[in-house]
Design brief:
By secondary structure, this protein is an alpha/beta fold. It contains five helices and six strands.
Length: 121
């Protein structure tokens, strides 16, 4: 399991990675805003195609997200699609889901109530 935190703001955004049946599950905790774009990019985007093209982003621990996270989710979706894979979002709290809905990300990236449902669909 790998973990990433922005050094100058520990706890601001924390990401953990694990594998579940060949699917990469990225569990995020904290707030997603402009200050942590690099942490989110590192957590979701794959360099060199080393990770599997199927990813579930568990946002159940994300308490706030502004529009700065949207571009990274769209880029992750495009990267996965280019590798014949997908990205799914799981467990987004209502305020975070609302941001995803406002900009239409929920029509591009399927959003599920739980990680288990995202893995099973």
């Amino acid at each position: 399991m790998s973990q990433h935190e922005k050094a100058d703001r520990p706890g601001r955004l924390h990401a953990e990675h694990r594998m579940a049946g060949g699917i990469r599950v990225v569990t995020l905790r904290g707030e997603i805003d402009h200050d942590v774009q690099d942490v989110l990019s590192e957590a979701l985007l794959v360099e060199g195609g080393a990770a599997p093209p199927r990813t579930v982003a568990d946002l159940s621990g994300v308490t706030f997200m502004d529009s700065s996270g949207i571009n990274i989710f769209v880029a992750a979706h495009q990267q996965a699609s280019n590798a014949n894979g997908w990205v799914r979002i799981a467990g987004a709290q209502r305020s975070v889901l609302r941001v995803l809905e406002l900009v239409g990300v929920d029509t591009l990236i399927p959003c599920h109530p739980t990680t288990e449902q995202a893995l099973a669909s």
